[in-house]
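--- STAGE predict ---
source: upstream dedup step, 1 unique chain passed
mode: sequence only
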Amino acid sequence: VMLLGSCSKDEQSVQQTVNGFVAGIITDAATTQPLAAVRIIVFNANTNAPVGVPAGSGIDGSYRIELPPGTYFLKLARQGYEDVPPRDIRPLPLNVSSGQTVTYSVQMFPNAIPNAGIVSGRVFTAGAPAPGVLVIADDSTRAYSSVSSGDGSFYIFNTPTGAYRVKAWRTGFSSTDSLVAVPAGREVTTNVTLTQGVTGSVQGQVTFLATTNIEVDVELTHPRTRETIPGLSTKTLSRNYILNNVPPGTYLARATYENDGKVVDPDWIIKNGEPLVTVGSGTVSRDFSVTGAVTL
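--- STAGE serialize ---
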């Protein structure tokens, strides 16, 4: 018996989509010994937002993460070790191709913060665990972050002793505000709850100075960690943009995170300052001036 069949173009497209991998070994830079239980968070390199939920290294220091084709970067954290990449250093982008494995092995250096603690807990929404949520511990001058796992758990390693506000960030949701005191060399636990509530919007226009016009990406980021709030990223349409369902708060607005040959005009930043926006229940306007980037 011969069976004949056909599939639509959409079905063919799905069938032809093959994921790739990022894999490697994580070791101690001084001893070269493998490091287990390193927390690995994947971010979309074009939006600066977390993708999926964190992974971890095995007892032999190895990890292997399956991802759709695209451009990503990794953030690695472990108690007692410096983050990779270090704070305020731009991560190395990794291009994942269909059916291919990108090798990214890392050496981690001991952390210099004396008696650093850990902020841990779980994120919930409507009583259920909330994975892939950005969680930030902030003392108004410093901020440390992590992303929740599949069971809603998060671990903010190497947090200096002090008092912090812990909040979760995701588009369309407001977060409880937990106050914690991080003791020297110990772990403090707190849970965070996301609730759907009043949100606002940010909209504006992008103008181009001495360069060709293109459509660019716009994101809202945390003003201290500079990480994009999950879901608060969009692309301009006819050089205009709008971001809806923005939780109340103050954000650093960014244009052209994507590697598109454009940057926010430095003179514009000098004249106007960092593009901060404070969002409540209404609509806030924020325009950008963009120019060509220098290729290195």
